[in-house]
Amino acid sequence: MKLSTLQKARAAYQPKLPLGLRGNVEIKLGAPTQSVGDQEQIKALFPNTYGMPLVEFVPTHTPKSYAPMNIGVILSGGQAPGGHNVICGLFDELKKQNPASKLYGFLMGPGGLVDHKYKELTADIIDQYRNTGGFDMIGSGRTKLETPEQFESGLQIIKQLGINALVIIGGDDSNTNACVLAEYYAAKQAGVAVIGCPKTIDGDLKNQQIETSFGFDTACKTYAEVIGNIQRDANSARKYWHFIKLMGRSASHIALECALQTQPNICIVSEEVEQKNMTLDDIVEYIAATIAKRAAQGNNFGTVLIPEGLIEFIPAIKHLIAELNDLLSAKTTVQATAGMSPEQLIEWVKQNITPENLSTLQSLPLGVQKQLALDRDPHGNVQVSLIETEKLLSQLVGEKLAAWKAQGKYTGKFSPLHHFFGYEGRCAAPSNYDADYCYALGTSAAQLVANGKTGYMAIVRNTTAPADEWIAGGVPITMMMNMERRNGELKPVIRKALVQLDAAPFKTFAAHRDEWAEGTCYVYPGPIQYWGPAEVCDTCTKTLALEQEKN
Q1: Which pLDDT score, from 0 to 100, does residue 379 have?
Q2: What pLDDT, on the 0 to 100 scale, is given for residue 423?
Q3: What pLDDT was estimated at residue 378?
C-alpha cells in the first residue's frame, strides 16, 4: 500500500497510554454488576456471563509472564475513525506479552469468521495502518452472529487456528452479538473468550462506564470543519439557507456536538422534539419563523442542522413507524403480500393500519410514504437515512414562507441548498484523541484476554484528563443490556444512549440558541490538527468536556 505524505508522518506518532497499561499490569476487580433493565430476563438469558464485576487495570512492580496466545479480531458494522489503532494496540500488547502470540484478522466483518476468511496480521501489515482512518486493513461487514450454525462454523476455524479469544470491534448491535457469542462459548466450555470494543460515530454507545464511543470525536470535528466552511460561504454570499442533515439515526449527539462547535442558526434535536410532542408542522413553523426574523434584519441566509433520524422522533410519525415495523415484519404479512408490486403493497398497508396512523401517513409527501412503507433494513426497520429529511423540511418551509408572503407577513428571499454529511466523516484520519483512545482500547482488550475475561467490553475512562490519568479496564456487556422489541419480538440489546435534555451539553446549547438564531455567531473550527499545542491538538469533544464539567 502506498502511503501519503501525511500517513508517513502520522505513522511515527506514538499514541499515549494511561499509566495502568504501561509496563507491568495487574487487575483490580470491582463489585458484581447487574443489567440496566429487565434483570431477571437478562440473567436467565446469560447465566454464564451475567453479574460479573467491573475490571480496572493498575500498574504494578511485579513482573508477569504470559503464555503465548492467538487472538482473532473482527471489525463489525459501519466504519469509524480509529479502528485501525484498536487493532494496533491489540497487536502491540499481544506481542509485548509474548512475541510468539499471533493475531488473526477475519475479513469483511463477522461473515469472515463464519466463512473462514482470514489473514494473519504481522508487523509489516500493522505498520502500514498506524494512526490511519478506515477499516480497510481487514474490511468490515454487517453479518449478524445470532444462530448456533454460525457459532459452530466460527468455532471450527477458531479451533483450527488455535485461537484463544475473539475481539469484536463494533457498535451496540455488534457488541450485543459479542455478548451472545460469549455466552454460547461459555455454556459449551469451548475455551474461547469474546471481548468487545465500543465503536460508533453516532455517539449513542455510552453510559456511566463508557464515556464515548470511538470515532465520534473525529467524525464530529470533520463535519464541524465542513459546516464552518459552509457558514463562512453563507456569510460571504448572504443568499442561501443551507439545510444540513447529519448522521445519527437513533440519537442527536452528532448534531448537538456540531452545533456546540459551529453555532449555527438552527439545530433540531430529535429528543427534544419527542419530549415536547412536536408535530412536523411545529418544526416547520419554528424554522420558518427564524428565517423570517433574520430576513427582517436583511439576512436571507443561514444554516439548519438536522439529525438523520429526526423523522422517527416526531411522535405521530414514530407511532406510524412502530406499527409499520410490526405489521411488515409479521410472517402473516410476508405471506399475504408476496408478489405484490410496490403500489399494491402501499395500498395494502393503508388498508391494514389504524385510522390515526393512516391519517399521518397520508399527510406526508408520496415519496416519503413509499420510503416508510417499502424500504426496510436487514432488521426490518425503516431506512431513515434514505429519507431526505433536509429536502422535506426545506420544501415545507418554502411553502409556509410563500403563504406568509401572500399574507404580507414575510418579505424576504428563501433559496435553500441541501447537504448530507455521513460517509465524509466515517473514515477520516483519527484525531489525536481518537488515536490515543483507540490504542488504549486495543491494549485493554489484550489485557482482558490475558486475565481470562470473557463477555466484557474494553473501556477507558477519565479521558478529559491527561493520558497518564486515564483509567483502563472492562465492563461486563450484560451490564448495559435490556429487553427491546425488534422485528416484533423482545430481544436482549444494549440500551442506546440518547441526548439527555437535563445534561450540560444540551442545556449549554439551549441557553445560546436564540442568540445564534437571530444573530450571525458562526464559529469556523477549521481542519483537525495533529501537531502543535495540546490545547489545539489533543482536545476532546465539547460534549464530553461539558459532561465531565471541564469546559
Answers
A1: 59
A2: 93
A3: 61
Residue 107 domain flag: yes
Rounded CA separation 158/154 (Å): 6
C-alpha cell at 196: 468487545
Task: Please list the residues that pair with 484 across neighbouring strands.
Answer: 491
For the segment 267-287, what is each residue's pLDDT rounded down to a tens digit?
999 999 999 999 999 999 999
The edge-to-edge listing of strands for the beta sheet with 456-461 is: 25-32, 53-59, 471-476, 456-461, 193-198, 165-170, 70-75, 102-106, 118-120
Indicate whether 457 and 518 sit together in one domain: no
Q: How distant, in Å, are the alpha carbons of 177, 204, 458, 459, 545 from that of 213? A: 17, 8, 11, 9, 14
- Cα separation, 412 vs 401, whole angstroms: 9
Which residue from 438, 504, 350 is spatially nearest to 17, judged by alpha carbons? Answer: 438
Residue 131 Rama label (left phi>0; alpha psi -120 to 50; beta): left
497 lies in some domain: no
Residues 403, 480 share a domain? no
If one counts the domains in the chain, the total is 2
In this prediction, residue 478 carries a pLDDT of 98
**Contacts for 136 with CB less than 8 Å, ≥ 6 apart:** 129
Q: What is residue 551's predicted lDDT score, i.e. its pLDDT?
A: 45
Low-confidence residues of the chain: pLDDT under 70: 375-382, 384-385, 487, 550-551
Q: Are 28 and 67 in contact (CB under 8 A)?
A: no
The verdict on whether 92 is a catalytic residue reads no
Quick one: 27 and 83 in the same domain?
Answer: yes
One of 92, 202, 204, 436 is an active-site residue; which one?
202
* Cα distance between residue 46 and residue 351, in whole Å: 41
Q: Report the percentage of the chain scoring pLDDT > 90.
A: 85
Give the CATH number for residue 241: 3.40.50.460
Domain that holds residue 543: 216-426+502-547
Would you state the torsion angle of the CA atoms of residues 223, 226, 227, 229, taken in this order, to the nearest 10 degrees? 160
What is each CA distance from 24 to 20, 65, 89, 99, 465, in whole angstroms? 8, 10, 16, 16, 22
8 domain residue, yes or no? no
Can you give the pLDDT at residue 4?
85
Between CA 17 and CA 443 the distance in angstroms is 9
Amino acid at 309: G
Going from the C-alpha of 317 to that of each of 55, 117, 273, 386, the distances in angstroms are: 42, 42, 12, 16
Say whether both 284 and 386 belong to one domain: yes
If asked whether residues 342 and 268 sit together in one domain, one would say yes
Q: What single-letter amino acid sits at 454?
A: T
d(CA 93, CA 146): 30
Q: Are residues 204 and 345 in the same domain?
A: no
